[in-house]
Each structure stands twice: as C-alpha cells, then as structure tokens.
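Q: Start with the shorter request: fold the first protein.
A: Done. Sequence, then structure:
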Amino acid sequence: MTICRDARSIADTVVGLLGDPDAAAQMGVAAKIVAEKNRGALDRLLAVIERQPW
C-alpha cells in the first residue's frame, strides 16, 4: 500500500509507477479489489443512519 500525504509524494509515486509497469499493474489490481469490496458502502451507511431514532 502506498500512502501519499502531499503533492510531492503523489508525483514521486506516479513517476515510480511509470518506470515499473509490473508494480503499476499490481497496484491497479489491488485498487480494483478495494473498489469492489466497497461498492455500495454509501448506501449501507445511509441505511444505518436512516434507522437511527433521532
């Protein structure tokens, strides 16, 4: 996992990935898995909020 906390670290990461297609592909696969696992997360959160007895 790569955590970028500022523009410089994002730029460095992108430049590194441009020079390492295998790492870029691996990061892409990992990102797709995270996105798929979180699909519908907002709807689930809103459902929980709507059930609260405020």
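Q: Next, the second protein, separately.
A: Sequence, then structure:
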Amino acid sequence: MAWEAGWRRSVPGGRVDRISEWTERRAPAVVATVAMLVVVMAFSLSGHTLVHGGHGGLKSPHDLWSLAGSSSMILHGRFGDIYVRHGALTSPPALEVALVPVTALGELLGLSPRLPGTGEPLSMWLVLGPAAVLMASTVLFALDAVARQWRFSEQSRLVLALVGAFGVANVVGWWGHPEDCVSVAFAVWAALAVDRFGTAGARRAGWLLGFGVAFQPLALLAVVPVLARLNWRDAGRQVWRIALPSLLFLLPPLLAETHRTLFVMVRQPFEPAYISLTPLTPLATHLAPGLDGGGFTRLAAIVVSAAVALVVCRRYPGLDVVLASSAFAFFVRILLETEMNWYYLWPVPALCLLLALRRSRFRFTVCAVALASSVLLGDRRVHDIALWWPALMATALVMLLSAAPPPRRWPRIVHGLGRVGGSVGGWVGGSVGGSVGGPRVRPDQRATAP
C-alpha cells in the first residue's frame, strides 16, 4: 500500500525493510522461537497443576532463579556474592551480565524478586522467563544458518527448528540453563565463520569461541575442531581472543572474592544429593560434607576429544566434519561426567539433528526419537545407575550414530585417517620449529568425509 511504502521510506536507513528481510530469511527459527516461548511460558504458569495437581502455581526452574540472583548481585555491585554456596553458577558470569538489563528492568517496574522460602512470584518471571527463552533461541538461529548454507528446503529447516526448539525448551523451561544453548550457538557460528571465509574468518571465530566459553566452558570442546582447519600460526593467534572474554567477566569477582571464585572455577563443586549419579561419581573429589568436585574428568574429556578432533579435522576439514567432531567431543564429556543432568546432554542432539537431516529424513527421525527418549529418561534425579545411566548414554550414542557416515564407509575413513600422521606432525612440529604446518584454508575449500 502507498501509506505503508511511504512509512517504510520515512524510517532512517530503511530499518523496517532490513528487519523484515532478516526475519524472512530466518523464518523457520523465528517461528520455532515464538512457539517455544508460548509453550514454555504456558507450562510455567500451569505446569504446577499439570505435574502436581491441586491448586495452580508457578513452575519455574530453580537454577534459573539462582543465576538471576547472581545477576542481581552484579547489578548492585556486590561482585563478591556472585558465586555462592549452593548456587547454580560454576562458569564465568557472562550470562549473568547479559541478564543485568532484565533484572534492572524488573526492579524498575517494581516486579517482585524471588526470596528464599517465599516461592517464585509471578511478576518477575514474566520478564525473566521470556528473556531466558530468547537468549537460548540463539542456538536455533545458528543451526538454521548452517541449514541455509547447506541449502536445506524451507520445510526441512522448519522441522529442524521445531524439533530443536523442543530440546531448547527443556533446557530452559525445565532445567533453567540458557547459557548452554548460547555457548553451542557461538561454537556453531565460529565453525561457520571459518568455513565461509577461511583464514580471513579466524579472528571472528576466535572471538565467537571466546564468548562461547565465557557463557559456558563447554565451548572449549569445539575449539580444536574449529581451529584445526587453520595452520598453526593462525590458530595460535586466536588463543588470547578465546581467553580474554572469560578473563574480563571473571575479573570483578576475582578481585572482590578471590578464594571463592577460584574454588568454584577450578573445583567445579556440585552436591550429589541434587544430581543424578554416574559410574564415575566415586572418582569425584570430595570437597566437604555433601559437596564434591567434578573438574578432573571434564579436563580429561577436553584432552581426549581434542586429540581426536585434531586428527580427524586435519584430514577432513569440512564443516560437517567439524560439527560432527564437536558432537563427539560433547558425547565424550557426558560419558566422563561424575554428575549428570539432562541439559549436559543437550549439545549432542543440537548438532546431531542438523547432521542427521543432511543425510536423510529417516536418520533425522531416529535422532528426534532418541532426543525425546533422552528427555523422558533425563528429566529426573536418579541415584541408581544400573539401568538409567546406560539407557541415557544409549540415546546419546544413537543420536551420534544417526549423524555419522554409513558403516560401509567407515573402513575408507579409517584408512584416510591412517595417512594423516605426517600432516598432524607437521602442524605440531611447525609450532615448535617455526614453519607453517598444513595448508591454509581457503573459502572455496569444502572437503568432507567420505
């Protein structure tokens, strides 16, 4: 219409047109985000009645309130109280900083904060809940960006986004940890940056990985898969970019309460009474009565997955291989965990759904069914691992295999990896001797696994 065209032209820079174009290009992710927001908020407002029966009440995740409490401490300058005993925060406080405007808006509007022992008031949740969902939805847009590059049909992208939103809704609405979704999103965008721009995208990838680690250190598992496509010099130059965001976010609590902050970041404390156990729980470091630490096995997962990714991604430097190696790294992480909550598993289906859909609709269906099964198994705290833990790991393994190449191609892949020793040796040796190991990645390189 004429009035609409005139209004659009009157907006500086054609902002409305740009927003409309941006939304149209990402329509599947936008639709899935809106649907997820409606479902999560509806469940939170009526979930108490659905789950427990009787009178209505707010059904919201305790961990998210704990993270919001740390955000409130940042808002009021109480940096020494960001990390507290029995708190949910065990990573750099990037999410809490991102939630500061939300917390400030809630307090400005006079919304009631959650107070221990008084239950969760409705008012603050109407701000905190949607903000958490929108932050977590970043992973849907990251996966959709890859789907667009791989030229998925509109229908396939919508199905991918909706099934992915099911997992994201569980991470946020049930467990209260949007930072895991944000971290995976940054890792996917980093891989996409290197795939699109080659070495020219290394800086962008470094910053993206850095912010991913600042939200949740699980992004460390994607560092080697993403950077292995570069020569050693370009990869090494990204180390400070990966480390800097976390250091900046950690600096205020480190200065205000050094001992407590280092204790949380290094020891990774958890309370066995409030998590599900795994076969490796006895290996957890005993820190205090009712308090264990899980940092050792997570470090082992990083080392093991990094070694595998270095070999695989140097031989097959395609985006699909980088994402598959990252999914494998996330699987190794949960396999070696001394504690278990379902949202730890979420990064595996997040990537496997995308990779499985690229191979076939049947594989995608298998992956989606495994995801739903894992949610049914994982949305509880179980201290008897005899059947529960193997079943949950089986669902993750099914998702991983649904994204893998067909078994008939495995011998060819293994044979190809057997010839990569010289390439990896040159990459590592070059870092010592000063020569560049391995070819530079060009934007037109799209080598993939057989």
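Q: Describe the second briefly.
A: The radius of gyration is 22 Å. Residues 48-52, 115-119, 427-450 have pLDDT under 50 and may be disordered.
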